[in-house]
Design a protein that fits this description.
Layout (H helix, E strand, L loop, with lengths): L15 H23 L5 H24 L3 H4 L8 H19 L20 H20 L8 H33 L4 H16 L7 H7 L2 H14 L2 H4 L7 E4 L18 E4 L1 H23 L1
Antiparallel strand pairs: 1-2
Helix pairs in contact: 1-2, 1-4, 2-4, 5-6, 5-7, 6-7, 6-8, 6-9, 7-9
Length: 296
Amino acid sequence: MVQGDYSAILPEGVPLFAYLIFQTVFCATSATIVSGAMAERTKFLSYCIYSFCISAFIYPISGHWIWGGGWLSDLGFHDFAGSTAVHMVGGICACIGAAILGPRLGKYDKDGKPRAILGHSLSLGALGVFILWFCWFGFNGASTVSMTGDNTLVSAGLIFVNTNMSAAVACCVTMLYTWLRYKKPDVGMTMNAALAGLVAVTAGCDAVSIGGAAIINGGPNTENAKIFMDWLLTKEAQELSVATSYRYPVRTDVSAPEGLPALDEVDLVDYDRDQATAMKEAVLEKFESEIMSNRT
């Protein structure tokens, strides 16, 4: 199935099929990044379709531009382990998907002010971050595609240190920033910053100094990204959307506002924009009343 002569882009001493599975994993990573932005809000068939499109069309083209001798490569573009080729490709697709789907249920109040949607378990979230952090040493370090020779070992050592440095500095910077701004450290934002630092340094981890890796860290950009997405998904921005139908999971114990279809069973129900807003407020009022009753 793999046809053509790829000797010009194969790293020295690496067999074709070894490099093929190496790139396959990178391709799969770019596709799975998108699921985080649209989890629980798209059908499995939709997930399969966009994963196929990214894997079959988008990643092969962008990967060729950067790593296969394409026009970016000819310009001297340097992306050692995939900050652009993998993570930016997945991130742009995720941003487009989130913009199409719109905000999550309960993300904004009646005035369009964003609400924090807390994760169900910070412990599990922290475990996931540390697993990714550990695996990133393989993601970046293995991109040397060899551990033979003194020069390669020195390069791999620098890559490992830079990878860890960027994530660690991003954690510390964001923890202090949120501590000063919100009067307490934000654990969720701090963990997100670690991942941002890992992504940010992936492109140049083989070419920058340890101090450069500390400066590159993506910690401060995590807060900026949150602000940007809040702007993108506000009610004002949503007016620019061409979507006319919203699908929400509903609760049978929430009375549908006047003029909306009766909710006889838990299902996904189609609403237009105004109906979706009315249903959202009804669900939120139910949640708030339950919370207050539990407190009393």
